[in-house]
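lol forgot to send this yesterday, sorry. struct tokens for the thing we talked abt
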């Protein structure tokens, strides 16, 4: 065999990863970022989430016999519970690992943790700080890896939000989604990447220091408006969306953030500017009196808690897509 053929074979072997139990698989799938998720895969997840919502129990069990690790370095209610229940309902066993209870918390490298888990479990769901850590885990573990929130992205949340919009109002293509608040946070970034893929307009209303960098907006493509003017951003919107002003990991900046983001709130005055049937959405947890006021939150609680419930159905569709 000549050198070129050996190099070609080596490259092919590098693409082939060994899964638990010695099963070989080509083209391992991960959900790390909406920037890299193809549109047709997004559409499949959104479509199948409908089926998983309609039938909680009698559907196929694509995770039968599998164990999925869930490594969490940050707090979680919705993501943790929906993944634990979802993995169980798909026939698998969730294994929750608080990052501080495993050696990762004492400094064992991500790539070593990944290589150990890759030989024992069938997939991993990770919530952590750096996006690079989730990407490194995926690279070294050789098993499907899901980003359950990093400082940069929250892809499962935004797929769920789009599913919820479409369930309640029909296709999101051509609609206007207005995000008000910390426009540079993980949730806003994932909205940014989804906009170009699914053909809706995204308006980000945020103070200058809380806007995404121009090169990121350019890289994402699509119809995106970034402004400091909440009222202009809300005019005629189909969705008013917000997230906390102080994301996990930003607690040291709390006082500054509360001062800077004051006024970037969804309230009755802002809702009046949007379309009459606009949805008010929140990924939760919500801080009343800050990013949303109490009356507006409660007036739209049915939508917001449907969003929360839909984490379960959408993530079951994500898991099913990853293993099929
Ligand atoms: N929205 C969301 O991800 O909630 P948790 O932080 O409770 O998981
Ligand atoms: N931006 C928030 C989202 C919480 C679900 C955070 O990172 O804390």
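and heres what i got for the seq, position by position
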């Amino acid at each position: 065999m000549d050198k070129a053929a050996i190099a070609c074979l080596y490259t092919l072997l590098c693409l082939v990863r060994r899964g638990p139990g010695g099963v070989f698989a080509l083209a391992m799938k991960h959900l790390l970022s909406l920037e890299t998720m193809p549109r047709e895969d997004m559409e499949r997840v959104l479509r199948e989430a409908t089926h998983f919502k309609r039938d909680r129990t009698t559907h196929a069990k694509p995770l039968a016999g599998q164990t999925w690790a869930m490594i969490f370095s940050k707090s979680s209610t919705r993501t943790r519970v929906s993944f634990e229940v979802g993995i169980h309902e798909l026939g698998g066993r969730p294994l929750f690992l608080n990052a501080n209870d495993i050696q990762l918390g004492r400094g064992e490298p991500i790539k070593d943790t990944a290589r150990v888990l890759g030989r024992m479990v069938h997939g991993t769901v990770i919530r952590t700080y750096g996006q690079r850590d989730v990407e490194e885990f995926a690279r070294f573990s050789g098993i499907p890896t899901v980003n359950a929130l990093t400082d940069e992205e929250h892809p499962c949340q935004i797929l769920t939000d789009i599913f919820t919009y479409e369930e309640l109002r029909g296709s999101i293509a051509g609609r206007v989604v207005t995000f008000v608040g910390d426009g540079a946070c993980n949730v806003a970034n994932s909205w940014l990447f989804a906009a170009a893929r699914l053909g809706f307009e995204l308006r980000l209303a945020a103070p200058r220091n809380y806007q995404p960098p121009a090169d990121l907006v350019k890289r994402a493509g699509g119809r995106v408006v970034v402004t400091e003017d909440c009222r202009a951003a809300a005019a005629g919107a189909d969705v008013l969306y917000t997230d906390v002003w102080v994301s996990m990991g930003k607690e040291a900046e709390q006082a500054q953030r509360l001062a800077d983001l004051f006024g970037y709130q969804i309230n009755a005055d802002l809702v009046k500017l949007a379309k009459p049937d606009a949805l008010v959405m929140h990924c939760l947890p919500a801080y009343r009196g800050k990013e949303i006021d109490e009356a507006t939150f409660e007036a739209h609680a049915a939508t917001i808690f449907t969003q929360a419930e839909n984490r379960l159905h959408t993530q079951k569709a994500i898991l099913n897509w990853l293993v099929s």
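The CA atoms of residues 61 and 90 lie 5 Å apart. anyway ping me if u want another try
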